[in-house]
Model the fold of this input.
Amino acid sequence: MKKLIRIIHSIIWWVDGVVLMMVGIVLDAVIWPGDRKMYRKYERFWAWTLMKVGAVKLEIKGRENLPQDETVVYMANHQSHLDWPIIFRAVPRQYLFLAKQELFEAFIFGIYMKQQKYIPIDRRHIRSSLKTYKTVIDLIKSGNSIVIYPEGTRSYNEKLQKFKSFSFSFLQEAKVRVVPIAIDGSINVIKKGSKIMYPGKVEVSILPPISFDDLYYMENKEFCLAASNKVRQALLTVLEGKNLIRQKEIKR
Done:
């Protein structure tokens, strides 16, 4: 019986997400075409319904670390499908997502991402990746903040995966700060490879911006490694700290 309830709950959750996304696509095309402020409000509402319907308690810390009137790159670890709406709820700003090409090929989600002018990266083709590299730099220099999951894909466990170098290579030319965002617990709500969702608590920690002024003199390969280590260490400090606290609580 519990399994059946869980399945029904999950179906309702997915239907809510898909239907409201479709409504948003229509609204953006007909009612407020090109109005990013209105659509961001709708995205935050969409994300709010997902948290409520899913019985997900979202705890957000560190909003005071969000820079005011500054173009930045937000980098978050990636644990589940829930991470996209989590960003909408945690960061009330204007930004574009950088995501793998496969997502843009999906039926409804792909239409939504293309409509919002999010940025596809095709890791299978070098020429396409170079074009995306230049696009991202131009967008940042034009004042567009970007959201990136440097792991490149969702994780099967709570461990932070290896970062993709592309997530850092353009920073050397764009010269913007990175705001790390640690998402802890979304993997327990929806695991990779599963459509079943579970109610739970997700903690989001927005960390102080990281500058790379001391690294710009390096060769690009060295720069990517050093910049990656800076962001990785910031995220690990939070994620491993929370994991240690949980382990102590279990032993009590």
